[in-house]
Amino acid sequence: ESDTASEISFQFNKHKKTPSIGSHSSDMASVSSVSGSVLSVYSGDFGSVDAQGTVEFALDYDEKNREFQVHVSQCKDLAVVDEKKGRSDPYVKTYLLPDKARMGKRKTSVKKRTVNPIYNEVLRYKIEKMILLIQKLNLSVWHNDPLGRNSFLGEIEIDLASWDWSNRKLNWYPLKPRSLSAVNGVDHRGVMSLSIKYVPPGSLGPKNPPSGEVHIWVKDVKDLLQLRPSGVDSFVKCYVLPDTSKKSYQKTRVIKRDTNPVFNHTIVYDGFHTEDLKDACVELTVWDHEKLTNHFLGGIRLGLGTGLSYGISVDWMDSTQEEVAFWQEMMLAANEWIEGLLPLRSL
């Protein structure tokens, strides 16, 4: 059924409320740092302010320095957020889509008490031109609130594949309301096909297996983000959280130049007591492999999504309804393969 079978022990002292978590895993540190930077393009409190006004900016690509430049000049006639005081404190934010995680956000300074802010700032991205041409630029304007409840003032989205790169002049563009994809929270990163199975201790005969086992069969992924014209060189990482030690870490081989990779890779974790299933979480993340650094593409977390692990509040116990239902079905059907098709997401 698979090209690789790995068996890893999942060992916790079940008498302790606080399991020991390894701190020496460089791979997990990488996961955490990337996950922490994956912020929503549309984070904040939108309030009831209607988008209005215009923004003046210019786009350029510096061939010598391989740098994409967004020259943000100014805005005019923005919406007033604080009507009592008649003020807005606007700033401009940009993302490159669809992979906002990889390129991150850039933003200007905040201009206080004005609906006609002047910035004259350049937002820069180090990126190859061929990768840039399969991206979209999302430029949005926000009111900065001291308490962090920022208000959306308008946006514009530009398909860089069809952009006229000979046009380096400053031009005015009308700000538009949020796009439908933003309202619905659409963040399509692909879909993973997999099966999971739980084998309780002694369910296959006396002391067979001696401890419980979780089997994870990663079959394939479809519609991955294409970071370069030739496709993507992807692989899957697996951890059983909260164990982030090297014993917990497993990965598939790299499938090159394919946005629909077939992995057919099985991992077996033993040392699973039945009561561990409510506190553990299987994290599967998909990465683009490059020589210097790997880029996060998306992932899933299989667990009960309670926010707690062994009585401790943790941010990774955040499974979606689909992921929770998949994990619960496995818990209720011992020794049976449970098949699933789950969307990848930002973690």
UniProtKB/TrEMBL annotation:
Keywords: Cell membrane, Exocytosis, Membrane, Repeat. InterPro entries: C2_dom, C2_domain_sf, SYTL1-5_C2B. Pfam families: C2. It is found in: Cell membrane. One of its GO terms (molecular function) is neurexin family protein binding. GO terms for cellular component: exocytic vesicle; plasma membrane. The keyword Nucleus does not apply. GO terms for biological process: exocytosis. Its main location: membrane. Gene3D superfamilies: C2 domain. Residues 51-173, 188-317 form the C2 domain. This is Synaptotagmin-like protein 2. The gene is Sytl2.
